[in-house]
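User: what does the whole thing look like in 3D?
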Amino acid sequence: MRAAALARNVGHAFGENRLTLAAVAILIVLLTCAGFGHALAPYDPLTTDGAAKLLPPNAAHPFGTDALGRDILSRVIVAARLDIGMAISAVLLSFAAGLALGAAAGYFGGWTDRIIGRLMDTIMAFPLFVLAMGIVAALGNSVLNIILATMIINLPFYCRFARGEVNVRRELGYVEAARMGGNRAVPVLIRHIIPNILPPMMVQASLNMGWAILNAAGLSFIGLGVRPPTPEWGIMVSEGASYIISGEWWTFVFPGAALVLAVFCFNLLGDGLRDLLDPRRRI
Amino acid sequence: MTGQLQIDRLSLVFRTRHGAVRALEDVSLSIERGEILGVVGESGSGKSVLAYAVIGLQDPAAEVLGGRILFGGLDMLAASEQARADVRGRELAMIFQSPRTALNPIRKVGRQIEDILRQHANVSSGELRRHAINALARVRIPDPERRYHAYPFELSGGMCQRVMIAMALACSPFLLIADEPTTGLDVTTQAVIMDLIRDLSRSARMSTLLITHDLGLAGEYCDRIAVMHAGHVVEVASVEKLLDHPAHPYTQQLLGATPTPQSTIEGLTAIPGQLPDLRHDLPACRFSARCARRVAACEERPLPWVSIGPDHLVRCQVPL
Amino acid sequence: MKPPLLEARGLSKHYPVGNRRRRAMLHAVDEVDLVIGRGECVGLVGESGCGKSTLVRLLARLIDPTAGTIVLDGADTTAVSQSRFVGMPDRARIQVVFQDPTESLNPAFRVFKAIADPLLQLLGLRDRPKLAARVHRAADLVGLPRELLTRYPHQLSGGQRARVGIARAIAVEPSLLILDEPTSALDVSVQAVILHLLADLRAALGMSYLFVSHDLNVVRLLCSRIVVMYLGRVVETAPTDVLFTAPRHPYTQALISAIPDPARRGEQRPRLDGSPRSPVDPDPKTCRFHGRCPIGTDRCTGAMPALRPFGEAHFTACHFA
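Assistant: Here's the predicted 3D structure for the full assembly of 924 residues, as structure tokens:
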């Protein structure tokens, strides 16, 4: 019965918004690339071919080849795993940490709130991309550090959101009723408040995901982060950028388009999720 | 004789995604000069929709299917927006349920009254301030010179409602529409505000349409009462007749369910059933599904207006 | 004679307000004494901001008092802080039915879970069939059809939500049920049903009620004794019929005369005008009603009137009562 109700909800959300359906289709494509990129790619993304340098899109290489003769389509497909993987890991981490910190700040108030608040203000005081650059530069170029940097600069966003949502619910009747029903502070938060703030948080996370992808790709673009020859959209755009003047547009347009598509997809999904997760619309 | 306000067979629906809500059907009412008419009903009865239809500020989803609203000879539904806007504020005023949100929070209350005077009354700018202070004094606000400079947040809920009334009455309207004016106020403040509305309408020969869910309140302050149920006016009568000899089964049950200073828990009766869903096909009499007196004739359309005495109308095939 | 079920003595709650330079205390509840007998139904009335809600939260042990004690069945519940009290067995003995039935139900919990939660947390009822039996019994007691147990709150009508709120509170079989404006969000037709339900439940389960309302017509119906609060203090308490026919405190008199009554239409009645005094750092020697009170003499600013007895179970805090 629950499965049927869920299916009805999903159908309802999609029926109302065709764009969400498109976003889900893009997401499936992206996730397939991320999961089975190596098997799907027509060529090895790292194999260079001196005879096939900077070929424009053609039947053999639909997206053309780059300066080293590598197939751009294969590189775009294989890069999906790294780019989306980094963004998802970073968003999940900042979601969890931001939820925990924000919920504690919002529920307990007082000193907890002040300390967490100042900490987030400190992060927000920096231009966020510069802060991310600094973190990666200090800790070293690695995928893990890119994830960490992206997580830290996203943290205040989730933390403040969770704090606000918990704060308005703290005084609500059902929270007082939960306390009357014998729930201590932590169970009140975990069992009663957090399930109610998850839907809006998840919408925010989905909207934020596109930004996380751009951030990770951006770090690679400026040379901090993943190193060549690893296929990654940011590096590919960066490498292709030197051909803007000479006219080899395919070198940066296709990886750039992949980035745009991924960001667009998560933003649309955010809107769709909002409809889907609204408990008032559950059947 | 035509009244100050005459509503003739007004029908109104809301077009929503989930179908048309038949919010008002065949509503007829009239108010005489200087009279206080109470419109009483539970939530969903359409009493607020009616008030908003009269002032012409209804929701964009609302669609008038038929009927007329005549105000001092002007057909409010056919008139241009400009003509209606002229009437609003000068001849017709409204006060709302939550006075604090209806006032501009960053403007002194005296200034807000001046704004109304400047727009609708021919008051020279030098006289504005004196008129505004007079308006505050008229609603018995103590120390009006000082309150003139107050911001809404500095005043209590009761004081805010008095300011709203002062604004509504600033241009001496012919008709005041009061939509639950005392809901959310304390019972002692409610009594003061209602006394004020009653005394002002008596002294200025102003008509008042009082929208309320409280039959006891309407019973104390109104001259006549119209009872609404599910978008129908089911009974209109003078207060004495309505309270002592209700003719519609719903009125009788509403009286039985309303606690008064004389009632006991044993004497308090509930009304069985629920309001019908106004989106579905509805029977001629929208109360018939909850009614113990239902007969076959209740299915017949149109639902008649039965006169059971001077100034006592009821929409029921088998009145009590 | 058995001791009363609940006895509150000198209960106060003060909140700090103002900034660092000017510290002040808001006296939400001040030195309130309240006794509730076994099986008794006490009404609590007063205007908004008079401290009714704070007193309810104090008695329900949702907040800690600044001063005073609450003795429940001979045991001092104020001996531990409210955060410790949450886990104690006595927690189940006082339950609250909250004002707004919509706001007081967790939108993510189905009705069954809403009623089962206090049983799980307070009584540790982990055994599924036993839990279900208790939930079903509570639902039956409040007349909630069992098929509604799988619904979410937004799928219920206002009256059904009110029943869920009551079922949740009585499921753990409290000895004192605090009803905080239980019908103020409901239409009169539903209100009548809920009032009958509450009257029947008390007869069936032998609970004591503290019935909080701003509507004196409603309080009258269920309560045998009424407590009137004004600005954080109890100004009068009397058996219901005495309070309505012979109120002694000028505030109570104004309150009674303000009840709309078609039977007294057109009558010019004395009205209470003006606004209440500030509850921030009030003068401990001045009667809180002074300034609005039609009597108001020098005596009222010289000494705070204490509750004095006037006949059986009738106490009034006024120099001129």
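In plain terms: The interface with chain A takes residues 57, 60, 62, 83, 86-87, 91-92, 95-96, 98-100, 103-108, 117-118, 121-122, 152, 154, 165, 168-169, 172 of chain C (CB under 8 Å). The domain at 36-67+83-223 of chain C is CATH 3.40.50.300 (Rossmann fold).
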